[in-house]
Amino acid sequence: MTLSSHQRLIVFIVVAFVIDYLPLINLPFLWSETFFHEISHGLAALLSGGNVHNITLNFDGSGVCTTSGGSRFLVSFSGYAGSALWGLFIYCLADALSPGKSRLVVMFIVSMLVITLVLWARDYSSVIILIVLLIMYLLPLYKAVRGSAKSFIQLVGVFVMLDALRSPLYLLDGRDLGDGAHLAELTWLPEIVWVAIWLVIASGCLYILWNLNKNKNQSI
Fold first, then answer.
1. What is the pLDDT of residue 16?
2. Are strands 51-57 and 63-68 parallel, antiparallel or unpaired?
3. Which residue range(s) make up the domain with 156?
4. pTM score, two decimals?
């Protein structure tokens, strides 16, 4: 039986939830969300005239992107917002392409990983994590399983969006650390306001994805 686009999305959401609670198996997916979060900081710095010095990825799923110059506001805001938008973007892009052409999306992500590894990885954990992610993303290109590239990228996109919905909540720990605290310092708006904005963005991405697939089924 062939699943509709809407049914496939539901399956991806369920599988992403299950993976999130599987020790070890969930780590590369968590690291993916961290990578998209940190690379969003880096891109915001570069696009606003700044520099990226290094990107650190830790085994526990945390990360740091060290930048200078550029817009501090854009750099601080882009992490959580960017990861949700990346998830939506790669899911929709893979969904719009044939299984064969979806490999181009995989190669795009692989290229970003390689650039990060070469230019900005400065510690062992970051190097190891980036290599693991490269292996994970290169596997769908292997001839025996290359037909799975589209489904794999869509699963990653859903996982990243779901994790972007949950991750900002960790900022509400009373320690005044992280992107929310930086934005509160820059704007005088309390951290909880920025957490709420990021939750709205992540929820909005999921809502857009849900409706796109629902409308696609209705148009068939």
1. 94
2. antiparallel
3. 5-18+48-219
4. 0.91
Domain count, the chain: 1
The residues, any chain, with a CB within 8 Å of residue 186's CB and separated by 6 or more, are: 72, 73, 76
- The label of the residue with tokens 């696009």 reads 47
Q: Is residue 27 part of a domain?
A: no
pLDDT in tens, 63-106: 999 999 999 999 999 999 999 999 999 998 888 777 667 778 88
Residue 42 forms part of a structural domain: no
Residue 70 within any structural domain of the chain: yes
Q: Do 213 and 6 meet the contact criterion of CB atoms below 8 Å apart?
A: yes
Rounded distance, CA 147 to CA 169, Å?
36
Residue 51's φ and ψ, nearest 5 degrees, are -130, 150
Give the integer Cα–Cα distance in Å for 119 and 55: 9
Please state, in angstroms and as integers, the Cα–Cα distance from residue 21 to each residue in 17, 130, 145, 159, 167, following that order.
7, 22, 25, 12, 15
> Is 23 among the domain residues?
no
Closest by alpha carbon to 109, among 80, 86, 76? 86
Where b means 16+ CB within 10 Å and e means fewer, 154-183 reads bbbbbbbbbbbbebbeebeeeeeebbbbbb
